[in-house]
Amino acid sequence: MADRERIYLSSPHMSGLEQQYITEAFDSNWVAPLGKNVDSFEEEIASYVGIAGAVALSSGTAAIHLALILLDISRDDIVFCSSLTFIASANPILYQSATPVFIDSEPDSWNMSPVALEQALTEYAAKGKKPKAVIIVNLYGQSADYDRLKAICDAYEVPIVEDAAESLGATYKQQMSGTLGKFGIFSFNGNKIITTSGGGMLVSEDLSLLEKARFYATQARDQAKHYQHSQLGYNYRLSNILAGIGRGQLQILNERIVQKRNIFDYYQNELSTIQSIQFMPETSFGKSTRWLTTAWIDPKQSSVSVSDIITHLETYNIESRPVWKPLHLQPLFQECAYYTHQEQDISATLFNQGICLPSDTNMSLQQQEFIVQQLKDIF
Ligand SMILES: *Cc1c(COP(=O)(O)O)cnc(C)c1O
């Protein structure tokens, strides 16, 4: 079936508005460095999520890295991080030679478990080894339970970095995802809900810290005509061309959220008769973008495995994937401590039984019908 057109999990979906900003940049020869698109994209993202400021960067990973630098994280510091996430959430901890400790998910949101966080923080504080930051990830378009997580972090005065790479446009109570921690980060990688082909954003209420982020992201150049540097810097800014793509993409973000949620609703309605498929729950405290439709297969109700489904869909050129492999199970992090949700390892269970279904807004209804038919056939 190789000639069947491939259906992706989530591929770039242009609005048609991007080109005008790119053309403007070309016409004015502001191809580089930085320029109007970068400034405007920063303002537009800050205004969309309702926060004081934003710094456009070359990736979401760079944004996390700079957040850790601004929190002064260095060798042997401890940083807590959600375990169920993409590796980019935690790699910057190693860039700073700090030590990650991983925290399990709770079943209700699939995001960081307040129970596991509290246990970890209590134990580490008792040892006099309080973490210097907690990286909380909002998975697959849904916010974590910030009020509970923040109360625990506040009690120990530990700042939060909110990894909202997958949750731009989601809400927590009345607030936008990415604005709940000391820093928030977004990604515009090709698979995210909006893309600049590659890019990221660091947001915060603290404008002076964001100024420092700009400084570190442009090779930490001191104020001098000659090139002078007193600190270690990075080449992390976003290009003015790519920021132009981002400006065009941001204008259709709300429409994409509606489409993503419709894709989710269609799967959920069509597959409601299959008892063993349990979709990722949406919590009452927020609205998910449903960036990816994810579900888990209850092994008590079906012998069909996630790998059976992935293999079957692949024969029709349909992309699907397991849920993120938790970081505490990654060979890179095998030495790291891990705190589970009570006695259960929720993130490992979600990894073993969870699947991400094609959630591409480029997908036609006929294509989605076809996927649903294939899923019904397997079960
Ligand atoms: C995509 C992603 C990132 C990294 O973003 P890049 O822009 O690809 O560097 C970080 N965290 C999570 C949870 C992500 O999904």
From TrEMBL:
Pfam families recorded: DegT_DnrJ_EryC1
Top-rank lineage group of the source organism: Bacteria
Biological process according to GO: polysaccharide biosynthetic process
CC cofactor: pyridoxal 5'-phosphate
PANTHER family linked to this entry: DTDP-4-AMINO-4,6-DIDEOXYGALACTOSE TRANSAMINASE, TRANSAMINASE
Gene3D superfamilies, A to Z: Aspartate Aminotransferase, domain 1 (3.90.1150.10), Type I PLP-dependent aspartate aminotransferase-like (Major domain) (3.40.640.10)
Active site: 192
Similarity comment: Belongs to the DegT/DnrJ/EryC1 family.
Name of this protein: Aminotransferase class I/II-fold pyridoxal phosphate-dependent enzyme
N6-(pyridoxal phosphate)lysine: modified positions: 192
UniProt key word Transferase: yes
Annotated signal sequence range: none
Swiss-Prot/TrEMBL keywords: Aminotransferase, Pyridoxal phosphate, Transferase
GO molecular function (one): transaminase activity
